[in-house]
From TrEMBL:
UniProt keywords, alphabetically: Acyltransferase, Transferase
Source species taxonomy: Eukaryota, Viridiplantae, Chlorophyta, core chlorophytes, Chlorophyceae
Top EC class for this record: transferase
Protein name as annotated: Glycylpeptide N-tetradecanoyltransferase
Catalytic activity: N-terminal glycyl-[protein] + tetradecanoyl-CoA = N-tetradecanoylglycyl-[protein] + CoA + H(+)
Native source species: Raphidocelis subcapitata
Domain of life: Eukaryota
Amino acid sequence: MTKTKEKEAPEAPSAAGEAASTSGSGAAAPGSGSAANAELVARVQAQLAALGTGAGASGSGSTAVVPGGGGGSGSGVRAAIAKQTKTKPKERYAFWETQPVVQFDGAGDAQEDGPIDKPKTVGDVRQEPYPLPDSFEWCEADVCDAAQVREVYELLSLNYVEDDDAMFRFNYSREFLQWALQPPGFRRDWHVGVRVKASRKLVAFISAIPATVVAAGKSLPMVEINFLCVHKKLRSKRLAPVMIKEITRRVNLCDIWQAAYTAGVVLPMPVAVCRYWHRSLNPKKLIEIGFSSLAPRMTMARTIKLYKLPPTPATAGLRPMRPSDSPAVAALLNSYLARFKVAQHFTADEVEHWLSPREMVVDCYVVEAPSSGSASTSGQITDVVSFYTLPSSVLGHPEHKELRAAYMFYTVPGSVPLPQLLQDAMVLAASKGYDVFNALDLMENQAVLKDLKFGVGDGTLQYYLYNWRVRGVPFGAPDVGLILL
């Protein structure tokens, strides 16, 4: 498997340079050359939308430098992170040293779990929107409105991410955006856009959605920041930093001060380091479009045979999830996620939103105990497996126009072993025309991916908490039960 070069990125938007969350660092995909890196570059760059916000944030914009609380000395933590990520942390992080995040040279385990920043109230938050350059104005994007969600879709599809070789461009569908931006409790004023006053053209966008995250046993209201995008021609206008401050202000006005976010670059200081793995479902197409390459001494026919899957799932009683399953799935999912050190907690309404099947957006299947079983388990939901869809446009290819990727979402093994559940998901994805199946090595995945013919990616995805200190970090990937879009 060939390694690919990672893209360089600034550490964060700051007053010292143009914010570039839209063009961050990508992790390399396995066995794929620089072209294969494109799809994962897009995935990681999407996560970089959260990077500059510190996800949800601090008061009215400026905070004191607060020592971190990592699990050991600064040099020891730096060495551990460097070993996991193959990236040596910088000695200084000018922007992040001003934010309430754990620092590499913090006080270690001596500090208790809890908020880093000094307590604030909604009354401390700036009441007026931050000023924009004269030719621009703030707007709220109503993603319930077909015309407005199309504007967001077009902005992202043309300006969000593209690989170095201009072969692939990440392509969120309109349906995906509506799903991703409208969970229970979403706020329209957290879907923040910037328009040109004269033309009314949407030229920038950033969003926040609510989530309940459990960190080391403490349940916290947070936000996830995503889809930070500035039109390519306007990145010298310094819109991104003010957008980050504005979304932070709006979230703080709702009395939310913590967040979880991910990035493909090393910043102060990861809660955990995870890695993407990739499984070919349509190897012929992946090779034809340059996403992957034929391995030495392998023919196309042998490669196709190697990755061939069974025609049907192996699990009896596996069926698509129904909305009426949501309370049972929520109980099963939360019970499973409670074993991990960082995880999301779901209400039944949230489960219905995030996991109810939507064509080409999200697929979820449950295992229902047979009626012939014991009276205590008859009809009970025992297992869950899900994946969501993030395609990329294939640029300049005479035949193929789209790379269809499935990403493993929340999955709970119960009566069925995890390897069988995951293979069933791949069988179902392949039958629906997906080309590749991706999964992080979090939760229990790490132990089963290799046997299922996944290839390990070269790059890593770091998880971070904003304004919340947890002792003993960084955790291992198997300690993470949180999946961010």
